[in-house]
Amino acid sequence: MKRLLNALFVSFVSIVPLCCSLERLNFPKHYLKNHNIVRQHVGTPALKWDRQLEKHARNFVNAYSVDCLVKKPSISSGIGWNIARNWGNDTFVGAHAVVKWALQQENYDYVTNSCVGGECHAYTQLVWKRSTRLGCAGVTCHNFSGILIRCNYEPPGNIPERLSSPKHYLEYHNVIRQHFGSSVLKWDRQLEKHARSFVNANSVDCLARKPSISSGIGWNIARNWGNDTFVGAHAVVKWAHQHENYDHVTNSCVGGECHAYTQLVWKRSTRLGCAGVTCHNHSGILIRCNYEPPGNIPGQRPY
């Protein structure tokens, strides 16, 4: 891997025109070729350049161009990212940033899918198989103390499998639905995308303070504080436990909340899409599942 990265560094950094700082930091070809050499090495498909992601990255680096100190977290719904800073070296270019992220491969353990001995998430985002689009930008700090570079990726990487795997959500939903005579659900990518946008938008503290107004979409939300091992299956079981509060005779909740359960087993719902996120302050997990057609229609029974 190091041999590959050294060759990558020499072949692309050597052709960068060091005379023009903006050009060497904002030339798509340099970012794209270096990304795709590393990705090809591990068998993931090549990325394509995306102008909207580039624009987003440029707005970000420009906002921090005074001293290149990224003091505020970047909350970007549905966008993965890598950031590189280099102090006291105004010859730092996009190729250097990619090499820097790629060298984190040494800390990635594929067997356990975890970082061992150091940070590795910049590397895993760089080579993330499901990411298909790339947009990057860089800036020289106003006080000439260094360089700030950001690359954006869509779809985002570094999604925990336990929070993103359709199989886990579907299996638990359908076992419970079959128990009550409701038909099995099928996975829907648009509902998943909608759920992911919601949890990402509320990922700072997972409080989900803003209401989600979604015409024609039913939903369930689960939060768990102080336990980052909480997974999609736990969320479904949590909703299913509300069965104890549902009175089928009166079609109402008795003794507690039951609407998460009734949506889970709603007979007319046929499609499912879910997503989860770890809160940025690592205080817990936020999970949302979307359903179409929606359940909990007044005057109707779940099954």
UniProtKB/TrEMBL annotation:
GO terms for cellular component: extracellular region. The keyword Signal applies. Residues 26-161, 164-299 form the SCP domain. Gene3D superfamilies: CAP. Residues 1-21 form the signal peptide. Keywords: Signal. It holds the Pfam family CAP. This is SCP domain-containing protein. It comes from Arachis hypogaea (Peanut).
